[in-house]
Here is the input.
Amino acid sequence: MLLFEKEKLNTLSLGKWQQDAFQLFESKMTDKTHKFPCIPATIGFKLNHFRYGFLSDPRSDQAADELAELLSMYGKQSQSFGKYTSLIAFFDTPPDIQKNYQVSDYRQLFWDVLSKVSSRDHEEWPSHIPNDPNHHVWEYCYAGEQYFMYCATPAHDHRQSRYFPYFIYAITPRWVLTEFNSNLQTAAQIKTKIRERIEAYDEVGIHPDLQSYGSQDNYEWKQYFLNDDNTSTAESKCPFAHLHLKKQS
Here is the structure.
C-alpha cells in the first residue's frame, strides 16, 4: 500500500474508479458555492497536508489488511505532513453496494472494517485511553495513535456533509485536533462558522451527537458515523465495544 499526496496523484496512472474518487473529493473540498462545512479540512486539502489511500471492496478482508497497513504507515509519518493533516481512505465501492446498501448497512460495514483493522493491531491500547467506548474520553486508536474517524457514504442524502459517491473514511490524528483547539478564541470562532456552514450544507441541520471531545456528555463513537436524519444511532453500546474489550481481556 502507498500513501499518496495531492500533487503526485495528478501525475500517476490511477485506475478509473481511483481517478473518479479523487476528482469528486477535490470538487467537494474546493466548491466555492456549496462550501464544505469543515473549514480545517478545506485548509488541509489546499495546503496538501492530506494523504490518500485507495482500498479494496470494504466487505473484503483485504480492505482491512490495507487500511491497517495504511494507518501504520500514516501514524509514523503524520507529524511531518502538516498541522491540518488527515488520512483519506477511498474504498472501491462496487455498483451492487451503491445500489442496495442503505445507511444502516453502511454503518454496520463501517464498524466491521474498524473491528477487523483493530484485530490486526500488534501494539497495546494507549494506557490513558479507556477501553470502554462509552467513556467520554474514549476514541479509536491504532498502533498507539489516537484518531477521530469520519465516514461518508453514497446512501447519505439529506446530510450532504456525510455524503460521498464512494465509501470513504477521513481519519484525523488527535494531535491535529489538540493543536487546533490550543487557541481557544480562534477555535471557538471557527467552530461557530463550521456550524453555520452545516446549517447551509445539510437539509437536516446539526446532528445532536456532535459534541466536544472530553465533555461529560460526549461519545466520540457516535460522531464517527451519523445517521441521515437527526436520530441517534440505534445501538445502545458502541458496535466496536465487544471486540475491543475482548481483545483487552
